[in-house]
Amino acid sequence: MGTTRALAALVAATALIVGACQGGAGRPGGGSPAAGGAGAGSPAANSPAGGGPAGGSPAGGGAAAGTPLPGAADFKACEVSDTGGIDDKGFNQNAYAGLEGAKAEFGIGEIKFLESTSEADYNRNIQTFINEKCDLIVTVGFLLGDATEAAAKANPKQKFAIVDFAYDPVIPNVAGIVFAIDEATMLGGYLAAGMSKTGKVATFGGIDIPPVRTFMEGFAAGVNYYNKQKGKNVQLLGWDPKKKSGSFTGDFQDTAKGRQVTEGFIQEGADVVMAVAGPVGLGAAAAVQDAEGVMFIGVDVDQAISAPEYRDVMLSSILKRIDNGVKGAIRSALEGRFKGGVQVNTLKNEGVGLAPYHEFENDVPQELDAEIDALRQAIASGQVKPADWYEGAPGQ
Amino acid sequence: MTAAATTVGAGSAGLRRQQLFGFVYLALAAIIAVAFGAATEPGATSSFELNAPRVAVQLPPLVVPSAPTAYALAGLCAFLGAVQLTRGFGARNAVVLGAVVLLFIAGFLVWAASTRSMNLVGVLQGTLQRATPITFAALAGVLCERAGVVNIAIEGMLLTGAFVAAVAASATGSPWIGIIAAVVVGALLAALLAVLSIRYRVDQIIAGTVINIFAIGMTSFLSARVLQRRPELNNPDRLGPIQIPLLSDIPVVGPIVFNNNVFVYAMFVLVVLIHVALFKTRWGLRVRAVGEHPKAADTVGIDVLRTRYQNVILGGMLAGVGGAFLVLGSTGRFDREMTAGRGFIGLAAMIFGGWAPVGSFFASLVFGFADSLQARLSILNVPIPSELLLMVPYVVTILVVAGLVGRARAPAADGRPYEKE
Predict the structure, then answer these.
(1) Is A324 helix (H, G, I), strand (E, B) or coil?
(2) Cβ atoms A114, A128 nearer than 8 A
(3) CATH no. for B121-407
(4) Strand B242-243 to strand B259-260: parallel, antiparallel, or no bridges (unpaired)?
(5) Angle subtended at Cα A258 by Cα A253 and Cα A260, rounded to the nearest 5 degrees
(6) H helices within B42-153, ranges in order?
(7) Phi, psi at residue B152, to the nearest 5°?
(8) Is A320 helix (H, G, I), strand (E, B) or coil?
(9) Do domains A68-179+321-352 and A181-319+357-389 have the same CATH topology?
(10) How far is residue B126's CA from residue B260's CA, in Å, rounded to a whole number?
(11) A181-319+357-389 — its CATH code?
(12) Longest Cα separation, chain B
């Protein structure tokens, strides 16, 4: 019996140790020699020469590559990711690309990240970074809103930046990096409607939270705008604009659910699918690839580049330049201009946008491309407001 | 406590059970009439699409008037309830229960598809896909428990199999090597369980739990440390669907059964093979003897421990294949804790299926159907909150395990270590 216990205890202990290790998996950041700034090798790379819709940064990322800013060597920027994981080929990874870009461009001394494997990790991870005396803690995602607020109020000297969250009233030591993503998804919705042969397009989300819904509402706005302009009746599956409810897989982790939902959409006749679900979207892309004649619209980063295995089905991507937003926040903290409040990224300041069509360059009719360009300008100038089109043509 | 025993016994307990079922049937009839029938808009129709995308033979959709159909289903259900209350169905009790469940589901579908169109073939395709990993898990459970070893480590074996399949298939560029690697790792974990529970006679539940925790910790750790640094190791080729010529052109059945990936076909073969092996061969008789009465088996010269080792390891190999399906046959990517409890649902399916491969397969289909339907309803914007829908498979699990568990009997020596005197 002695051996038995010892053996069982040994296995159990190993399991617990390994389990504990992965909970606090903090990898010292990158160390990549990429001197070309956020561009080279980073998953968010957009061909800068190609006239891609997303080029500049909203908050001054224009420092020449490799010229360190004064005091940068002692600066430490730290990211707490959401549950999707730092390798999600989208959201969290893109925020980290912002840190890597800041390291390469401004020469900041140290970047780190901690991954949250569950919501219970948020507080713990933030506290770890406070203890490590990070100069700026970047929390990635709406779901970290409460944890960040609590930590910021308890540590008023610690600077925070949070993606996708705007505090009202403003917390002086938290900069909110928010995105008018519906402007970009409206373009995506228009593109999807214009490219659909079956007259049905689809979208679904991960967790039912406002930043995700904004993607879907903008997409609906684009479809509605297309229908009104063209007198067509393209249907949208997965989001009901009137009831403001739609399909959600329930998390940002279970890729199998993304696949299931997408198979459902395809069986119901949809031939363009946009997944707003972090890595769950990769499961959706797998389903799209296994079907014939179906296209996929990626989100957050240009997924034709970040997930090249799905390039053949990637019609375009909705760009959410979290990397630029994060870089901007780091820069302002570095230069002593940091202040709490909200920094809104729009089509106009190129903080959001539509990625190039890549493989579909020759399939998207020139006329449609021109219409999308016109719509882009109309939105940027304020002539067309996505929110007016959420539920259908305005005034109807 | 079988249905026949209930009525033959005809004691007060049996009568109460009969009446209880009668009242339940009547209540379900009322729900069908009120919640499904009366809730539809007057004159609305429910349309069921019967074609998969791009099939040769197109069938017209099945269109029925919503409310009248629901009332008809409710009437049928109420009739069955009334008969059950007054005189019972005797030996046919189980069949009637099944019929009532089907009526209820049909009523629900009519309501859900009211004023909409639902692709029925799609729902059934999804059912089979979702049932596949559950079936592999259940088969693993059947093999282990028929020999008298409780294996709750199947979840961990699925997860590890998925991880290893992703890495091996990415590294070598061949999904087949991924499957082989998953089988090997499944066998290794099973061997660990076997040694702990057979040789060292550790409590089997505890040994299994430890292996599960170990698998979750290990795969999460490696995925954070290795896969994130080397994403090319988490990018395997998938095994896509293979259309079987001619058979896949059969309307409705063709696209559901004969247009699947190699895992699903393997599942069909294995379910039949293991069922026959367990119940029609000498090997199967020995395995069952070991699971029911190891001492008796030992007396007639069956090597109890060897049989147990063999079965547990075979089960682990099957669980490994199930894990490989999750990556190579589905999402093409490993994610932390991606099995999401499918190993445990597989065990529930095994119990529901009476510790028999074919039964477990049909039980897995029930879980797959709940899951598939849930996904479909959220797509069709059926006015049920998505969180509620996501609960459905788990509620079904509880109902099945709690409500119907009494009908099936576990092998007598299940979970009890064997010690030679």
Answers:
(1) helix
(2) yes
(3) 1.10.3470.10
(4) antiparallel
(5) 135
(6) 66-86, 93-112, 120-146
(7) -95, 10
(8) strand
(9) yes
(10) 11
(11) 3.40.50.2300
(12) 75
| Domain residue extents for chain B | 3-115, 121-407
A286 to B332: CB separation less than 8 angstroms, yes or no? yes
Cβ contact (<8 Å) for B121 and A267? Answer: yes
Residues of B in contact with A267 (CB under 8 A): 52-53, 119, 121-122, 125-126
Is B167 touching A (CB cutoff 8 A)?
Answer: no
Task: Please give the full DSSP string across A173-210, using - where no structure is assigned.
Answer: TEEEEEE-HHHHHHHHHHHHHHH-SSSEEEEEESS--H
Q: Report the alpha-carbon distance of residue B185 to residue B324 in Å, rounded.
A: 11
Q: Judge whether A356 and A52 are in contact, CB under 8 Å.
A: yes
A341-345/A352-354 β-pairing: unpaired
Q: Which of B382, B357, B346, B400 has the alpha carbon at shortest distance from B159?
A: B346
C-alpha to C-alpha distance for A59 and A57, rounded to whole angstroms: 6
Segments making up each domain of chain A, as ranges: 68-179+321-352, 181-319+357-389
Angle between helices B357-379 and B342-352 (to 10 degrees): 130
Chain A CB within 8 Å of residue B372 CB = yes
SS3 call for B49: strand
- Asked if residue A346 lies in contact with residue A324, where contact means CB atoms within 8 angstroms, the answer is no
Give helix B282-292 / helix B120-146 axis angle, nearest 10°: 70
The Cα of B337 is separated from the nearest Cα of chain A by a number of Å equal to 8
User: What is the spatial distance between Cα B67 and Cα B73, in angstroms, rounded to a whole number?
Assistant: 10
**CA–CA separation, A145 vs A128, rounded Å?**
17
Cβ-nearest to B378 among A11, A247, A282: A247
The rounded distance, in Å, linking the Cα atoms of A358 and A373 is: 17
The token duo for A151 is 């930590």
Subunit contact A16:B206, Cβ cutoff 8 A: no
**What part of B 313-352 touches A (C-beta under 8 Å)?**
326, 330-333, 335-338, 340
Q: How far is CA A36 from CA A60, A102, A153, A303, B7, in A?
A: 17, 11, 37, 20, 81
Pull the structure tokens for residue A158. Answer: 């610690």
User: What is the residue-level pLDDT of chain B in tens, covering all 421 positions?
Assistant: 444 444 444 455 556 777 888 888 899 899 899 888 888 888 888 888 887 766 667 788 889 898 899 999 999 999 998 888 888 777 677 778 778 888 888 888 888 888 888 888 888 988 999 999 999 999 999 999 999 999 999 999 999 999 999 999 999 999 999 999 999 999 999 999 999 999 999 999 999 999 999 999 999 999 888 887 888 898 899 898 888 888 888 888 888 899 899 999 999 999 999 999 999 999 999 999 999 999 999 999 999 999 999 999 999 999 999 999 999 998 888 988 888 889 999 998 898 888 999 999 998 998 888 888 877 887 777 777 656 666 666 676 676 666 654 455 788 888 888 887 6
Q: Are B349 and B137 in contact (CB under 8 A)?
A: yes
In order, the DSSP letters of A232-278 are ---EEESEETTTTEE-B-SSSS-HHHHHHHHHHHHHTT--EEEEEST
For residues B152 and B211, the answer to whether their CB atoms sit within 8 Å is no
Its sign, for the CA torsion A363, A365, A370, A372, is: negative
Q: Which CATH architecture best describes the domain A68-179+321-352?
A: 3-Layer(aba) Sandwich (3.40)
Between chain A and chain B, how many beta carbons pairs sit less than 8 Å apart? 170
Sort out which chain B residues have CB atoms less than 8 A from A237's CB and list them: 379-380
In whole angstroms, how far apart are CA A240 and each of A95, A97, A247, A350?
Answer: 30, 34, 9, 29
Contact A271, A201 (CB under 8 A): yes
In this structure, the number of other CB atoms found within 10 A of the CB of residue B47 comes to 17
Q: Three-class SS of residue A77?
A: strand
